[in-house]
Amino acid sequence: MVGSTLLKSTKFLNLSQCMKVLVSQNRSYTSKLNEQQLAIQELARDYTNRYLKPKASKLDIEGRFPFEEIKQITNLGLMGACVDEGYGGLGLDYLSLAVAVEELSRGCASTGMAVSIHNFLYANLVNEKGTPEQKERFLTDFTKGSIGCFALSEPDAGSDVANIKTMARQDGDYWILNGKKSWVSSAIEGSAAAVFATFDPELKHKGLACFLVPLDAEGVFRGKKEPLMGVRAATACDLRLDDVRVPAACLVGRPGDGFRIAMEQLDQGRIGIAAHAVGIAQAALDTAINYAKQRVAFNKNLTRLPSVKDRLTDMCILVETARLLTYRAATDVSTKNSSMAKYVAGRNATAVADHCVQILGGRGLSTKYDAERHYRHYRDARGTQIYGGVTDIQKRLVGHFLLKEHDAL
Ligand SMILES: Cc1cc2nc3c(=O)[nH]c(=O)nc-3n(C[C@H](O)[C@H](O)[C@H](O)COP(=O)(O)OP(=O)(O)OC[C@H]3O[C@@H](n4cnc5c(N)ncnc54)[C@H](O)[C@@H]3O)c2cc1C
């Protein structure tokens, strides 16, 4: 819709008028999205502007999980965006989900993160890799309000996934799980998790398996909410698994498939975190432009000071490059593309939020007034270089696949 309006309206416009149309829409690249993706973008944008954005500061200050907002987002269909319609989803493509996550994160990074992880790391996993029985049990309710989690990290194994210690022991028609998971997003509010465990630590990555585990199962203990620097309304906590008995029917794929499943899901998860980072960066750019337009220094608006204009230009370039790589990764999914998108989007969001703080001067640092919001972009942006896989690992992955393509490993 937006794209076709632009095409129609640009027919008789000159270049500067075209730029005005683009600026009035406050975004670019929309012309490359198809009708469905544009409709989802509009849906998420409208919801964000009218309902989510006005509440974000309060949610962050109070560190309150966005229950009400997630319920509304569920009603929009976005908690099962890519899930087959037969299981209550919208059956959309990854790019539609990514643009929705970007818009939601622009308004409230915590909400955008929770939506991203639920969809890309849990719902899509069950939808694409689950049996019909698993989908009935672990998917249908999860497009209607239940929240799903992804429990891979452990206290002694974050980046080093093959070294996880949570044990899975087969006992007849059951598997018994024992161990500790850490940093599980939304586990306090969640109803089930994809849990990764080893059935033979000697086998390293070949010994991993993935289980769908109800979080109210006997032996599952949820830890306290981790106090976070950013995305404070989102939650992450430890999960302790003490002799948790799960039916063999809850095993995803076969024993030994766990590492592949985790890596394939992280390829998607990184698109989600990249989109989330683009949303945070866009919010910081919007904030900085709006402030610079009305703040006067040396008898001029800040926008007329060359150094501020330069900063805003840098910010725009950082946002756009991150968005392009993210959209590319969402349409052409590969480890190299999603790692590159996450690497660039996380770093760029942090840099853009840093510029934003600078343009706001003292107000950029203040936790008083409304300006707390602006410093919040900075706090929120930083985490995008950590969760979903640290920036350093993304760089290594890009390098690995680059050399592999050139037969130079
Ligand atoms: C808010 C939040 C939410 C999270 N949600 C989830 C979730 O839902 N599910 C989940 O499973 N996990 C989750 N995590 C965990 C997250 O994925 C890990 O924190 C992350 O993968 C890094 O692991 P680590 O913290 O153990 O750091 P480490 O692996 O100990 O790494 C620390 C640092 O060492 C360096 N480093 C380590 N290994 C390498 C390497 N091979 N090459 C180069 N440098 C390296 C990097 O600089 C890295 O930043 C979350 C984390 C946070 C903070």
UniProtKB/TrEMBL annotation:
Catalytic activities: hexanoyl-CoA + oxidized [electron-transfer flavoprotein] + H(+) = (2E)-hexenoyl-CoA + reduced [electron-transfer flavoprotein]; pentanoyl-CoA + oxidized [electron-transfer flavoprotein] + H(+) = (2E)-pentenoyl-CoA + reduced [electron-transfer flavoprotein]; butanoyl-CoA + oxidized [electron-transfer flavoprotein] + H(+) = (2E)-butenoyl-CoA + reduced [electron-transfer flavoprotein]
Enzyme Commission number: 1.3.8.1
Domain Acyl-CoA dehydrogenase/oxidase C-terminal, residue spans: 256-401
Pathway: Lipid metabolism; mitochondrial fatty acid beta-oxidation
Acyl-CoA dehydrogenase/oxidase N-terminal domain location: 34-145
Pfam families recorded: Acyl-CoA_dh_1, Acyl-CoA_dh_M, Acyl-CoA_dh_N
Protein origin, superkingdom: Eukaryota
Keywords noted in UniProt: FAD, Flavoprotein, Oxidoreductase
Signal peptide (from-to): none
GO biological process: butyrate catabolic process; fatty acid beta-oxidation using acyl-CoA dehydrogenase
Domain spans labelled Acyl-CoA oxidase/dehydrogenase middle: 149-244
Role of this protein: Short-chain specific acyl-CoA dehydrogenase is one of the acyl-CoA dehydrogenases that catalyze the first step of mitochondrial fatty acid beta-oxidation, an aerobic process breaking down fatty acids into acetyl-CoA and allowing the production of energy from fats.
Family to which this protein belongs: Belongs to the acyl-CoA dehydrogenase family.
Name of the protein this chain belongs to: Short-chain specific acyl-CoA dehydrogenase, mitochondrial
Lineage of origin: Eukaryota, Metazoa, Ecdysozoa, Arthropoda, Hexapoda
